Amino acid sequence: MAKKIHYTRLDSPWGSLFLAGTDKGICACRFMNGKDEAGPIAAVMKKNSEALIKEDSVPLTPAVELLRRYFSGETKRMSHALDLQGTPFQLMVWSALREIPLGRIVTYGEIADRIGSPRAARAVGQACGSNQVVLFVPCHRVVAAHGKLGGFGGGLKLKKALLRHEGGVEV
To answer: What is the C-alpha separation between 108 and 106, in angstroms, rounded?
Structure first.
């Protein structure tokens, strides 16, 4: 039986968000940045070529509600089941990112230290760039050395906005 992936689009204070999930959990959460849904859908299809992919928000209702609480500032933790696909190193990095508290930032080097690879700050940055479930795996809370923003798939303006939303962090 083929894996089923449901997806929907929802509005956020920072633009449209694409959300997809399987019976195991969320597998994609990406800001659209003015793009149509074809890009994120294509990315999900590429990683799940055998899956049945269907637009249907009902199975995603708990995640949508959690996101809405996040947008309104009601929730402090984006705790939800995830269905992540990545290398063992990426999975370690993403797990460490989920431990960063709301309103806090850490450096790529600090994450490298936490996962026992102190010389892997650049690789941590690459794992952050491969993150397909923003907000649930908060890669926006990771900055370069000396507090410089580093990168973010949604753009640095969005990264700053998310950090301000989460606790007034100015970078």
So the answer is: 7
* Band of residue 75 on the pLDDT scale cut at 50, 70, 90: confident
| Three-state secondary structure call for residue 15 | strand
Report the predicted TM-score, pTM, of the whole model to 2 decimal places: 0.89
Catalytic annotation, pick one of 27, 29, 128, 139 = 139
Q: Which domains does the chain have, with CATH numbers?
A: 4-72 (3.30.160.70), 88-167 (1.10.10.10)
Q: CA-CA distances (angstroms) from residue 101 to 25, 29, 85, 112, 140?
A: 21, 19, 23, 17, 12
Closest CA to 78 of 140, 147, 146: 140
Distance CA 9, CA 1 (A): 26
- Reply yes or no on whether 128 is catalytic: no
